[in-house]
Write a structure and sequence with these properties.
six-stranded mixed β-sheet; 36% strand; 3 helices
Amino acid sequence: MTSQDSGATRMIEISKFDGEDERFENQLDVLLDDHAEANGTPFEPRTVGFVARDREGKIVGGLYGWAQLGWFFVKLLALAPEARKTGAGGRLLAEAEDHARSEGLAGVYLDTYEFQAPGFYEKMGYAEFGRLPAAGGHPQRIWYAKIFDGTER
């Protein structure tokens, strides 16, 4: 693969590796962060988590995400089977929404697969804004958002 640089052509080598490489991932993060900072829109994510525990103190789930560029992103929301259908998922999501509001954010967004919880998020007032279609035997991935306009909850 070649790249143009001031009229001169130079070779850029592309190679593949398998598995995780934290050092490489951090290098890419730095490149993206530097670019965002130079454009006046630094990422500056602020992570937060909410833990769900049963009466004995055992972790049965939780929510993890971060605030960035005016929005809160729910990266993970998971519950153990015994904690499902107890209202815990809705309470976790409400805690994240309350946190986002307290930070002055525009809203919350997240993604799920068709076999996970699309109905739950719709029931919680989230609107679909994007979808990867089911293709090649793979399930649909759906993105949802809730915009805080003062009329929700």
